[in-house]
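Lecture 7 notes: from sequence to structure.
We start with the chain below.
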Amino acid sequence: MNQTLEAIKNEKIIAIIRGIPTSLILKTAQSLLDGGIRLMEITFNQESAETLQETVDSIRLVHEQLGDQVLLGAGTVMTPEQVDMAKECGALYIISPNVEKDVIHRTREQELLSMPGAFTPSEIAEAYQTGAHIVKLFPAGLLGTAYLKAVRGPLSHIPMSAVGGIDAANIADFLKAGACCVGIGGSLVSRSRVLAGKFDEITEYAKTLVKAAAEE
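Predicted structure tokens for the same chain:
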């Protein structure tokens, strides 16, 4: 767990892979890896038991094929049972859009890294006190870096990630404002880009993000 935490803090960029078919998940992961990003969050699709299983299949496939080259996380984890599913298929960290104490507790029990989502100071503090290793400020882009700086004033002891609206233009600003890492989804791993087979564009944008993050 400590190694995962250090890797996230050092590498800073978590690619959020949402809504990508399992048949294209390996090409997507490889394109990110080629661009210098190895932290990848594959999100649970909560629509049905079938879509939940597809997420599990995707995480397992990337884990089996790419191994230690990537550090996999599961996203949009909403129940303790989904924490178990994520660990079983190779996820090392658990990310949620909200503060769900049962999910945080199960994540800790499974010796995985916990990263729940919060927005207000009260939610951030509650998540950390419950056991979160990093609290995901979400959606960070709505209020920008000024909000992150303000919240981190009294809560500077809590590691925070910034997710929502982060791109190459503002990634350095969010890192300078105190985010220990960022999550980037649609601007990097867009479903339309994947379905069109434009994996080279994902790789090039990943390189741009890595370069921008190094400038903070």
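Points to note: The radius of gyration is 16 Å. The domain at 2-214 is CATH 3.20.20.70 (TIM Barrel).
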